[in-house]
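Chapter summary example: a protein plus adenosine-5'-triphosphate.
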Amino acid sequence: MVTKEYQIIAKNYDLAGRASSDIKRTLKNQGTPLTLMKRVCAASYEAEINVVIHSVGGYATYEETEEHIILEFHDDGPGIPDIHLAMTEGYSTATEIDHMNGFGAGMGLSNIKKSADVMEINSDHLGTHLRLTFYKRGRNHESL
Ligand SMILES: Nc1ncnc2c1ncn2[C@@H]1O[C@H](COP(=O)(O)OP(=O)(O)OP(=O)(O)O)[C@@H](O)[C@H]1O
Ligand SMILES: [Mg+2]
């Protein structure tokens, strides 16, 4: 079992993506099949950026076992008032600065949902918790 933890700093566009880069490196080193790696990396990057641009900061954890990869993202608020609305493609509360940095198309959460086998999201004003599960021997039997 491999576990890792990363701090995610709010509004820091220079460090944004650092956790996801390390996760990618870890997956590569372990010889993870390319299709699985792409799904995990896409979801990880979107989730990390969301914590950077939409929250006051938080942390991510990575856990890998024989069966699955689990990514969790925790932040300390302000939370997502309407998760259903936030999941809608194209919906975004991103600022002008976010747009200048290339974020804010409103596609992140919907892409995460497509990438992960299981997406669990809980949010209140104290923070948002996103838990993503990827099965190594999934529907496609890609690693069998
Ligand atoms: N961790 C979070 N904390 C608070 N709000 C969030 C968080 N993640 C997402 N949101 C809210 O959900 C909306 C939709 O998120 P989504 O990732 O789909 O789009 P986006 O981040 O605005 O743009 P993109 O991901 O395409 O760059 C965000 O605009 C924001 O209002
Ligand atoms: Mg996003």
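Key point: The beta strands are 2-8, 58-64, 68-75, 118-124, 127-135.
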